[in-house]
Amino acid sequence: MISEDELRRIAAWSNDLTPEEFEEARRGTSIKAYGKGAHVCHVGDRLESWTGVADGLLKMSTTSRSGKSATLAGLRGGAWFGEGTIIKNEARRYDLVALRESKVALMRRQTFFWLFEHSAAFNRFLVHQFNERLAQFIGLAEYDRMLGATGRLARNLAWLFNPILYPNNDRTLTISQEELGLLAGISRQMANQSLAKLAELGLVEVGHNEVTILDLERLARYEG
DNA sequence: GCATTAACAGCCG
DNA sequence: CGGCTGTTAATGC
Description:
alpha+beta, Jelly Rolls, Arc Repressor Mutant, subunit A, DNA-binding
């Protein structure tokens, strides 16, 4: 069972719940740690839990039959996912890999459905989240073909600052250039050059092991 | 050509 | 020291 403070910290949606609903969510959620490179789940897994990122950085990706891996979303602390799989009682359609030491919150299926049945606030959150992810995945359909390395990096970086998925207003993220490369599907060296280009355009500010977003709109639309 | 790997020096925590 | 960064050289598609 997760502590009240911890749940509030890692789940923005929990603050809209009634006290009774919050207690139920808290009782049905626990924390699990994953090392760098560890798979949180594979394609085809039957996941019994709804999942949130408490600390760290995960990559949600699919692998095509030809063996190419494409990132569907980078997930940092505060992200929640897997509701589609839970609701439809399907197998997972994507892989989930920890890009660094990470802590993951697992909500029991039964608890998820209880909230789904009882909480208007929880349903509002789910609808907004579905909407955002849909928009994100539609963007993905155009993106792989059209964009070069810098464009892919810009998109993946912008995803990590989606204001609906990450309601806190933090503009700075602790992330290495290697991790950004893993997310965008490019080498560390290319990530380095791409970041420099984005910084030159005034879209981001690059620090040691961190990136600050200066213009999220233009970053999300960057096509270079 | 463009991107990737390998390699290395410099820098920071 | 250990991890991250910036750059160059060699290699591959």
